[in-house]
Amino acid sequence: MNTEKIAQILKKRFLDKVKEVEVFDFKPAFEVDSKSILEVCKFVKDSPDLSFDLLSCMAGVDRMDGFEVVYVLFSFKHKHKLTLKAPLPKENPEIESVSFIWAGANWHEREIFELFGIKFKNHPDPRPLLLPEDWDEGYPMRKGWKGADFIPLPQE
To answer: pLDDT tens digit string along 101-121?
Structure first.
């Protein structure tokens, strides 16, 4: 299935909950309202026309004015890919866990929480994955983290 067809299916089904965005290699890409992420993810996995059965990558992004969770999906059946991006606020960023849809999300979500502080609601196993259990020095992948003074930040 081509990019245009995937875009048509998502736009028709989700109207105001998704909007197409430009990215480099991972087209099509859609920005998804974070409150709708579970609904959209279940649909793209279960829809016979889409069948995105693999969460190939998931990442947190600090955009200075807010955060973003990025989901890169692949369909073995149709050999197509899709990127979903869910923007989150800077204060108290949280989003539903998709680990019940793709089991591989479990570790990705744990890593994103530890490194960015993005909370995944209803996550089945929120134990630390990378950092020591007694870690209390903040979130190392956030821009401006105290231990990242070697990374130049833009001046206001």
So the answer is: 999 999 999 999 999 999 999
